[in-house]
From TrEMBL:
<feature type="domain" description="Metallo-beta-lactamase">
    <location>
        <begin position="9"/>
        <end position="184"/>
    </location>
</feature>
<dbReference type="InterPro" id="IPR001279">
    <property type="entry name" value="Metallo-B-lactamas"/>
</dbReference>
<dbReference type="InterPro" id="IPR050855">
    <property type="entry name" value="NDM-1-like"/>
</dbReference>
<protein>
    <recommendedName>
        <fullName>Metallo-beta-lactamase domain-containing protein</fullName>
    </recommendedName>
</protein>
<dbReference type="Pfam" id="PF00753">
    <property type="entry name" value="Lactamase_B"/>
</dbReference>
<dbReference type="InterPro" id="IPR036866">
    <property type="entry name" value="RibonucZ/Hydroxyglut_hydro"/>
</dbReference>
């Protein structure tokens, strides 16, 4: 199982090369923690996987897949809404080519919780960052993958007083999990997670 697809097909291929070098088997499942581009745009480069995500993300990604993505489209959208600039410039830098690119909604969806083979649990938590935010709980390795669930809304939607949702963090901490991993920070130990959510 792979959690999140990478921010582009090229990024996905880098992850696959690292998996090959480590002697890991090919992924059978691809789980989306949420629908944001930097988590899903690499999906079209993952062969033979079943994509799993929350039902709210499926609907959003179906709309995203219909947009005419290209460097020109990104520029035009930023002209219309300059607040999109940082995100859309990052997308342009991530995409070397648009050939063969497509956004893939999840094929398998759930609403509250889903248990995958080997006991991996997907739990919808929502939150201000994305309505489909999902955490991935891996009991046999005592790891909780948080995605971006407690982050504030994306920059173009953020109000001046928006901040990380530390109450959500506190509610996710459990003695069952020794490690807490979000998408853009170093992993935290259980003790660090407890203090972060305090």
């Amino acid at each position: 199982m792979i959690v999140d697809a990478g921010h582009s097909p090229a990024h996905a291929r880098e992850i696959q090369s690292a998996m090959d070098a480590a002697g890991l088997p090919a992924a059978r499942w691809l789980v989306y923690t949420h629908h944001h581009w930097d988590h899903v745009w690499g999906a079209c480069a993952w062969p033979d996987v079943e994509i799993i995500g929350h039902i709210a993300g499926q609907e959003i990604l179906q709309r995203e897949a219909a947009r005419p993505w290209s460097h020109r489209y990104l520029r035009d959208e930023v002209r219309t809404n300059p607040l999109l600039g940082p995100s859309f410039r990052a997308r342009a830098l991530a995409m070397e080519t648009w050939d063969g690119f497509t956004i893939l909604p999840p094929q398998c969806t759930f609403t509250d919780e889903l248990v995958l083979p080997a006991g991996v649990r997907l739990r919808h938590v929502g939150g201000a960052h994305a309505p489909d935010s999902t955490i991935v709980l891996v009991p046999d390795s005592a790891v909780a993958l948080l995605g971006d669930c407690y982050y504030p809304p994306p920059a173009h939607l953020r109000a001046p007083d928006d901040a990380p949702d530390l109450t959500m963090v506190a509610g996710l901490v459990s003695d069952e999990y020794d490690w807490y991993v979000d998408s853009h920070s170093e992993p935290w130990t259980l003790e660090q997670a407890r203090s972060y959510g305090a």
